[in-house]
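Supplementary Note 2. Why include the ligand at all?

Several targets in our set were suspected to adopt different conformations when bound, so apo predictions alone were not considered sufficient. For every target with a known small-molecule partner we therefore ran a joint prediction. The input for guanosine-5'-triphosphate is given below.
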Amino acid sequence: MAVHPATDTIASIATAPGVAGIGIIRISGSESLSLLKTCFVPRVPRDQFVSHKLYYGTIVNQQGQALDEALAVYMQAPHTYTREDVVELHCHGSYVVLQSVLQTLLVQGCRPAEPGEFTKRAFLAGRIDLTRAEAVIDLLQAQTEGAARLAVNQLQGQLYTRLEHIRQQLIGFLALLEVAIDFPDDDVEIFDSTEVSFQLREQVISSLEELLAWSEQGKVVREGIKVVLAGLPNAGKSSLLNALLQEERALVAPVPGTTRDTIEERIVVRGIPIHLVDTAGIRKYEDPIEALGVERARQKLEVADLVLFVVDGSAGMTQRDRDLYQSVCHKSHLVVINKSDLMTTRQLEDLFSSFPEALCIPISAKHGHGIDRLLEALFQTIVGGRGPRADQMTCAPNTRHRAVLLHTLEACQRFEQALIAGAPVDLVAVEIQSALDCLGDIIGLTTPDEVLDTVFSRFCIGK
Ligand SMILES: Nc1nc2c(c(=O)[nH]1)N(C=O)[C@@H](CNc1ccc(C(=O)N[C@@H](CCC(=O)O)C(=O)O)cc1)CN2
Ligand SMILES: Nc1nc2c(ncn2[C@@H]2O[C@H](COP(=O)(O)OP(=O)(O)OP(=O)(O)O)[C@@H](O)[C@H]2O)c(=O)[nH]1
Ligand SMILES: [Mg+2]
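The joint prediction is reproduced in token form.
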């Protein structure tokens, strides 16, 4: 862990812009206390501020003019967020007031904090590891309860503890190997490769595999998935969008070609954010604007995680439906048979048999029938069957962690192969070291500066 160098005192508005009851300015660094003493006049005059005690008083500028009535707290290092001296000014949540208080502080010798700088200092000082620092940003950005839960767990060290456990196992193997390297002729077998192999599989490899499975599901919980509504003109895509949103969002009309541009909206289905995209009905158009809409629809289809292929059931299965279906069926998809209110059971059964490979859901977008079943099928397709259940995961490695975890797993698998092959101990040791280096990168022990910069650049100011 890098030794924390002497740093500037930094300040920023910690709360979001806009009108709010309270707004907080946070200061961190060695000058925090002296800034407090110059800018804040406690109601009861005193020469010192007791750490972690809240004081009532007035914030003043250099001219002694009152800027706000406020509460202030001085928190003495190292028992603080950054492990440096920290001061917080709890002002009224007026952005004008907060700006002028910040301005006063900046004039008196601190500088504006960069995005994520408070948390970066907490990390550099060793209060939190890199996965906990990343959890802070995940928590601020969480859009659903599930995503927030994963972030809080990670903030509390659930991911760190698991990774640290794996690391300690590997360090144990390495220690055994080193003894074996130092005493090659010893009669006693120090390094029992069968036993090590067993522990490696049970305690390290299986744990890495579980984390990788959780990371896949975690991405869905955090970021959600893109669901594109596609079909021929007039199939009822926009009606379906409206039914899913429970709001008349898109224009619906009996003429084909009603939707031209794509329309994007978000819903949450059982805790999973779903980004819905309604598209222009796909067919050959003479009109250049309609043709542009179709081009856009095709682009959205390319990037969809899941396609809802909407068919006008009352029109029966046409050759154009079949051609279009051919172009989407390689993607994960559900077939939505719309306008079932106009269909006989016989017609429905005929349509079902046109899609022997797909899951078909009959609905009536106009009357809201079958929407619950569709949502259930959507949820099952996203999470069901494969992978762990979202509510059973205690933590979920992010994309950065996942890439490094894959390398960790590969190194462990090479380690296992080397054991089985009876490779020389020093070669085996190389693989363990390589797995250890990967884990060190994830928790921030050995993470390259460029990676740290990328992690902290995702933060907002004041965090
Ligand atoms: N007013 C305020 N509310 C806030 C924060 C803050 O900085 N200020 N936080 C900011 O994100 C979050 C709380 N997170 C925090 C995490 C650690 C410490 C801290 O001082 N840790 C010390 C021990 C403190 C003690 O034991 O009393 C440490 O770990 O050494 C403070 C806040 C959410 N709410
Ligand atoms: N009877 C019945 N009519 C429906 C149903 N769903 C949609 N419609 C009607 O079908 C027509 C077309 O609906 P839209 O939702 O605009 O169809 P679209 O697929 O978005 O059409 P484009 O935007 O042109 O591609 C409208 O007149 C709707 O009222 C349904 O479930 N039952
Ligand atoms: Mg439409």
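Residues 193-223 form the longest helix (31 residues). Residues 231, 233-239, 252-254, 256-259, 280-281, 338-339, 341-342, 364-366 surround guanosine-5'-triphosphate (ligand 2) (CB under 6 Å). Comparable summaries for the other entries are listed in the accompanying table.
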